[in-house]
Design brief:
The chain has 657 residues and is of the alpha+beta class. 35% of the residues lie in helices and 22% in strands.
Length: 657
């Protein structure tokens, strides 16, 4: 029998009401998954007297086998760490910010109030904002516990929209839209498909604070949504025994659930502790497989569908290698675990980061033609998908010692899978360890995560490979933006200030990362990487100012030159000069193998295909099958066998690298 949202919530409401108690102890939460060597310095890094001053999100959730809904009892432990009384508390449910077309808000707070004898009311202000009205202000250092009963609907994704081809088209359509256009997708953050359920932004969190006030306006939906603040999470996840669960934090126990009829063989309660994290997410699925590898004090795990095992193991290799590279370059990773999970992402999202957990889109785990009737776009679809919002590498994407691509993946798609994974792993530093304001200054973490992914390719392969991947997977965002006649502009501005997603991707993900290449050339390797480590050390577990990295880099004799470079790359318009020409010929030269790129006839035909796919016209028929079967680019002539082979190579079968 399928469980309903109401029945799931009812199971949770059988629990006895919470009674008054002393404030919580964060020790067990921190000890569960923060590396022993990193624990002692946490209060000083967070600028708190005790880690229990961080908010605690105490979650008890129940999820059915079909993952179509959930019930949640949430208790939020709030401490006023400010110097003035806190007159009210504002909560956000970020899953409700973006409501896909034809859908209703996914999350409902069915009931809310305060514990410990405090008579408060919880009222909804907008679809993502709730306000807790207090009988009296919370004094500095004072505490409040809020309890919420929540129901959630987890939408089912259309699997036909999860292929490389469909994702590429969705991404390009999003790129063409204006910033004011109504959002059509939440990227599948709270959704299920292909046997995997994604539960992100599924509970209420404290709203952002700015100048002693609560922030309730996201000023648009472009970019990452969230609070960026550190907190602690204690979760109990009740699921059928057939479901495998992956969550931020560390599993600390599991027990069988005794049902009303006395049975104990149907469901299990999984206990997870997560201390000092910026966000919490979980994924579930009945068939998830796992591979693992120990890297120093951290256990790296890759979860994937059994049919994607080869790619899943490749993702494990990349994550483990990236963790080693980034620890050497940036400083130690704080947690005992790092999980990377195949996820049913849509809307052009290639990956999403959370504390100690990242997801990578299923479309990258399998051949580009899989799931779309053999009509996958292959390299071209991958090129378009990598321009997506998350990560700029598929989202918001070998030389000596090179390993073979997973079975069925062409080398270009394998490179994208590797780049996306490295980019998301880099987010564990930016903005996991070093926090930043992802709404007002998205370049701070995204541009540096892009550059970090290029560093991964440099350290794991070679400087030449890093340069090539940068051209294909980073600078390409800028070049496509310019090909679409969008103007160059400032990189450092609020997410809402970009006029459309194409400008956001082109500047934040495409242009901004190359500031670090310029700084490295100016300072030299030794000084550049030392100052990058200094930046991490100075702002570890805090929120860095938007130009914090620039100020650290500007220490010493190069200060004036560093600040001038920052102005050039972040505020001024020199992209065409600094990144090279954005012409169709130059783009194809970067994307295509020499035997195709150097053939004028093939270049002309493929240029027409690319213009059509990017909305540039050129006579490309809407039916790809008829185009490949007989119209050589809209002039009624039959394609030659060589041209047909080139199109097939570009659009899914040929292994472009």
């Amino acid at each position: 029998m399928r469980a309903t949202v109401g029945s799931l919530l009812g199971l949770l409401l059988l629990a006895s009401p919470a009674s008054a108690q002393s404030w919580y102890d964060a020790t067990e939460l921190v000890n569960a998954h923060v590396r022993p060597s990193m624990r002692a310095d946490l209060p000083a890094q967070l600028e708190v007297g005790d880690l229990s001053e961080l908010p605690l999100y105490d979650l008890v959730t129940s999820i059915p086998l079909d993952m179509s809904s959930y019930g949640l009892r949430e208790t939020i432990w709030v401490t006023n760490t400010e110097s003035a009384p806190m007159n009210d508390v504002v909560l956000r449910v970020f899953a409700n910010v973006i409501v896909p077309s034809g859908q209703t808000p996914a999350v409902t707070i069915a009931r809310g109030g305060c514990l410990d004898g405090v008579a408060c009311t919880v009222g909804q202000v907008s679809r993502s904002v709730w306000r807790v009205v207090l009988p009296s202000p919370i004094p500095p250092g004072g505490h409040l516990r809020i309890q919420l009963d929540i129901t959630g609907v987890v939408r089912e994704l259309d699997e036909s929209q999860m292929s490389m081809m469909a994702q590429g088209m969705q991404s390009m359509q999003a790129m063409q839209s204006g910033a004011s256009a109504p959002p059509t997708t939440d990227y599948g953050l709270l959704a299920h498909g292909q046997g995997i359920g994604s539960f992100a932004n599924f509970f209420a969190v404290l709203a952002r604070r700015d100048g002693g006030a609560w922030v309730t306006d996201d000023e648009g939906t472009q970019g990452d949504l969230g609070t960026d603040a550190m907190g602690n999470v204690r979760a109990r996840i009740v699921v059928p025994r057939a479901l495998h669960v992956v969550a931020s934090g560390a599993e600390v126990g599991r027990r069988r659930v005794r049902e009303a009829d006395g049975a104990t063989d149907r469901r299990v309660e999984i206990a997870v502790n997560a201390g000092v994290i910026r966000d919490f997410a979980l994924l579930a699925g009945p068939t998830l497989a796992v591979g693992s590898r120990q890297v120093g004090e951290t256990l790296v795990r890759s979860y994937y569908l059994p049919e994607d095992a080869t790619s899943g193991q490749s993702v494990l290799d990349t994550t483990a290698n990236a963790l080693a590279v980034f620890e050497q370059r940036f400083g130690p990773y704080p947690y005992t675990e790092l999980d990377v999970v195949e996820a049913p992402l849509v809307g052009g999202a290639g990956g999403v980061e959370f504390s100690a957990l990242v997801t990578v889109a299923s479309m990258f785990y399998r051949p580009a033609s899989a799931g779309d009737g053999g009509g996958g776009l292959g390299g071209l679809g991958a090129m378009m998908a990598m321009l997506g919002d998350e990560g700029g590498d598929g989202s918001e994407g070998e030389s000596e010692g090179e390993s073979a691509a997973p079975a069925g993946l062409d080398p270009m798609q394998q490179s994208i899978l590797e780049f996306v994974t490295a980019h998301e792993a880099a987010h564990q530093w930016w903005h996991g360890i070093v926090g930043s304001d992802s709404r007002r200054h998205p370049w701070t973490d995204e541009s540096l995560a892009q550059y970090s992914a290029m560093l991964y390719f440099e350290d794991h392969y070679s400087a030449q490979r890093a340069e090539e991947e940068g051209e294909r997977q980073v600078a390409m965002n800028f070049h496509v933006m310019r090909l679409e006649h969008h103007a160059d502009g400032a990189v450092d501005r609020a997410a809402s200030a970009f006029p459309n997603p194409m400008d956001y991707a082109g500047l934040v993900y495409g242009k901004g990362p190359y500031l670090y290449r310029a700084l490295r050339r100016e300072l030299g390797d030794i000084a550049f990487f030392q100052r990058l480590r200094d930046y991490v050390s100075q702002y570890r577990m805090r929120i860095a100012p938007s130009r914090g990295v620039i100020e650290v880099m500007a220490s010493g004799d190069h200060g004036a030159r560093v600040r001038a470079l920052a102005r050039r790359w972040l505020d001024e318009r020199h992209g065409d000069q600094d990144l090279g020409p954005s012409t169709m010929d130059s783009v194809m030269a970067r994307m295509l193998p020499p035997e195709i790129a150097n053939d004028p006839q093939m270049r002309a035909m493929l240029g027409q295909v690319m213009q059509g796919m990017m909305g540039g016209g050129g006579g490309m028929p809407s039916d790809l099958g008829s185009m490949m079967g007989g119209s050589g680019g809209g002039d009624g002539e039959e394609m030659s066998p060589e041209m047909l082979e080139a199109v097939q190579q570009l659009m899914g079968g040929g292994g472009i690298e």
